[in-house]
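User: Here's a chain of 304 residues. Predict its fold as tokens.
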Amino acid sequence: MREAMLLGDSEFGNRIIEKVGELFEGTSAEIKYESELQDMPSNGGLASLFFRAPQIPVRVPAVHNYLQRAAVVRVLSTEKDDGRAYMPITPAQSEELIKKREIPLRRSILTRDLYPRQEHVGLLLESATPIKRDYVFEANALREQILFYKEVLNITEKDAQKNLLVVNPGLQRDQSLPLGLGFIIIPGVTTVTIEESLGPTEEGEYISLENLFDGFALNGVPLLKDIRKPTGRPIEYSRYKDRLDSYLRGETKDLGPRKITILKDNNISLGVLYRDENLDLVALCSQGVIKEGGPTSTITLVSR
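Assistant: Prediction complete.
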């Protein structure tokens, strides 16, 4: 994998943002951005960006956070920089960047410390169910896309009904859907996998779980056998931050146990998988709270 760069940290990235604006102007996928710190040098040339979605309400399902990323995927599927194709990182590439200590960092306004930024790396499609859910129309439209491209995606019709992790889907305008936008499969770009560890409990109910896993996830998501329940008292944030800082500076060999949090809501059909500021993973398929026009998620690009 080549060196990662943040969207908007180059002329090429700015061109992509402009094209997203042309395609999705006036929608929640439109990107409005500004440098977080105009006068402060970034880490290794990696700029810190705020991505702004003008039509997002104060309290929204987490899937809204993925619209801009899917719009970027749509544009990048046809745009190149000096003959080189780029795409947002996958969950597996995110893990690789963490392992190599090359995850893009942002600089704190208050402390000037460098630390990781939250990034949504996958879209969660909940298993097909007769229960009426929010965004069920968008979920069904995406599942139809998966079934249409099932041979390209190497997935069976039966598996397409399960809990799926969809990485780098594209986006299109679709006025038949409540959002006015629909996720699409882009052959050769989008991947779809079954993720048992992000699914329901044995009782078939979705609950909130907080489990630890060791090392790095091969496909970006820990396997069930690699997840264990946390024991003892939670580590204090200050101690965890010290450990994280030491790891990113290369002073310690191992990051130590990491956490995967699974938050599920039976009323919502689509969610996101994201890496948080502590380099932990969160599978979120529930209501998320963000401020209107506020920062959502960074987008890291790597060449294909």
